[in-house]
Automatic annotation (TrEMBL):
Gene3D superfamilies: alpha/beta hydrolase. InterPro entries: AB_hydrolase_fold, PGAP1-ab_dom-like. Transmembrane segments: none annotated. Pfam families: PGAP1. One of its GO terms (molecular function) is hydrolase activity, acting on ester bonds. Coiled coil: none annotated. Residues 293-410 form the GPI inositol-deacylase PGAP1-like alpha/beta domain. This is GPI inositol-deacylase PGAP1-like alpha/beta domain-containing protein. It comes from the Bacteria.
């Protein structure tokens, strides 16, 4: 099955008051593209006619008004028409692409649509808080009916429907469970139980050991960092990659690539750790075994205070990156955070010091689990992909998702995020280019240290609960 993703870029300059003229311009571009396509078709017919008549008289259809049979043979006329047809069709494709980029890059909606959407969201929020069970069952029934009628139904597809409504429902459910403190408050209340579950299932002793192989190539762009993240997810579970880049003046910078949840019994990147990482307080987040594992790897790698660090993570790895970037109890300088499919909207990252580039998709569920959209502020950019079952029309040109399954699935795997970011790169977004430049400047220099660390949990009676005390882990 072919699936496609259409990216939208949300940044501090996304909002536009009056969009009517811009929408009209986009439609005008599409109309001009259609006219050019019709002309290209006419020239193509002329070329075919000329080639058919080449052995007879100097007859020429009316479309080749610019060519004189007396001045050039029919073969030349046919070649000219073919070249002109191709040129006109390329211009038409360019105009369609330009119109598509204009509409998508600006994320345009009419005022009436926006007002209606806000009213419906407020109604859903109130219903979710007052009648959480009934509202949840109602949303489930609607999603199930739509998924069963899609012809590609699956349980994962059911959970991937209506991400906006899911987000609102989870936010209000979190408020119910935590007296108005939302999902982070609910996570903090559940954290103790999650820790006890992790102790029983995995043990409470954490080990972080160097691995002999250097798993990833150099990454000087955001696209390359996401490609490395996809590669990391296919390697041995619980592996953290750390790379050092050295400039000509001897200054160092670092890229730490962090995996997502793997669910393995001996891995600190398990399911219970997600609850700790989404908790409201920094102290609760710091007890997460996975965060402690990453900080331990950073310490062993020799990262020094003041050296700029980029943290790149998928799913739980992105939450770890956001948690470390928003924490005060470590000595590291986090200059850039890159996340893919991570619910990090509620982490208090200071974007005057740390740039944030987030990639999400609308059918993945995971990025909506914190019940809130990422903030729109300076240096925080969100690329959000809309997953489609097919290419919707000739005027829209989404990017194909490689290796998609034949039935619906949660669009949480890295192939969806890399395709979404690739689609976003086609948009004329100065903010996205600024983030690319910031990341490239951070990783400027020669990759001279390429490290990997294996992180494991095990049961050792003499180290009971040592991982439950937050540490000021530094060089």
């Amino acid at each position: 099955m072919s699936l496609y993703t259409s990216a939208e870029v949300f940044a501090s300059s996304t909002l536009i008051e009056n969009t009517d003229d811009l929408i009209s311009s986009a439609h005008l571009l599409w109309n001009h593209a259609d006219e050019l396509s019709r002309c290209a078709h006419a020239y193509g017919q002329s070329a075919f006619f000329a080639s058919q008549q080449m052995s007879s008289s100097y007859a020429c259809p009316e479309h080749i008004y610019a060519m004189s049979p007396a001045a050039a043979p029919l073969s030349e006329a046919a070649r000219h028409c073919e070249q002109t047809a191709l040129l006109l069709e390329s211009y038409a494709a360019y105009l369609r692409d330009l119109a598509d980029k204009l509409m998508r890059a600006l994320h345009l909606y009419s005022h009436a649509e926006a007002q209606t959407s806000r009213w419906m969201q407020s109604l859903l929020a109130a219903s979710s808080y007052v009648f959480p069970v009934q509202t949840g069952l109602g949303l489930a029934a609607v999603s199930a009916a739509e998924e069963l009628s899609s012809g590609k139904a699956s349980l994962a597809g059911f959970f991937g429907r209506h991400p906006r409504e899911q987000q609102i429902y989870l936010d209000q459910l979190g408020n119910r469970l935590s007296n108005g403190r939302g999902v982070p408050g609910a996570a903090e209340r559940l954290a103790k139980g999650a820790e006890e579950l992790a102790d029983v299932w995995q043990g409470n002793s954490l080990t972080v050991t160097p691995m002999p192989a250097a798993p990833l190539p150099a990454a000087s762009t955001l696209s390359q960092s996401l490609a490395n993240l996809e590669t990391l997810s296919s390697l041995k579970h619980g592996t953290v990659s750390i790379q050092r880049y050295t400039r000509a003046n001897g200054m160092h910078s670092w890229v730490v690539t962090i995996p997502g949840t793997d669910g393995q019994k001996d891995s600190p990147f398990g399911w219970p750790q997600n609850v700790d990482l989404m908790a409201r307080s920094e102290r609760a987040r710091a007890t997460a075994d996975s965060q402690r594992a990453v900080l331990s790897a950073m310490q062993q790698a020799g990262i020094q205070p003041g050296e700029p660090v980029a943290l790149v993570g998928h799913s739980q790895g992105g939450i770890i990156a956001a948690s470390i970037a928003s924490a005060s109890q470590h000595p590291y300088t986090i200059s850039h955070v890159v996340t893919a499919g991570s619910p990090i909207a509620r982490h208090p990252i200071d974007t005057s010091k740390t740039w944030v580039t987030s990639v999400e998709t609308d059918r993945e569920l995971v990025s909506s689990l914190d019940g809130k959209d990422n903030p729109i502020r300076e240096h925080w950019l969100t690329v959000r992909g809309r997953i489609r079952d097919s290419q919707p029309s000739a005027s829209l040109q989404p990017t194909r998702v490689p290796n998609a399954k034949d039935t619906h699935e949660l669009s949480h795997a890295m192939n969806y995020h890399t395709a979404t970011f690739r689609d976003a790169k086609r948009l004329p977004s100065p903010e996205l280019e600024a983030h690319e430049t910031h990341f490239s400047e951070l990783t400027e220099g020669r990759l001279d240290r390429n490290l990997a660390y294996e992180c494991r949990m095990n049961k050792e009676p003499d180290s009971e609960h040592t991982h439950r005390t937050p540490e000021n882990t530094g060089p």
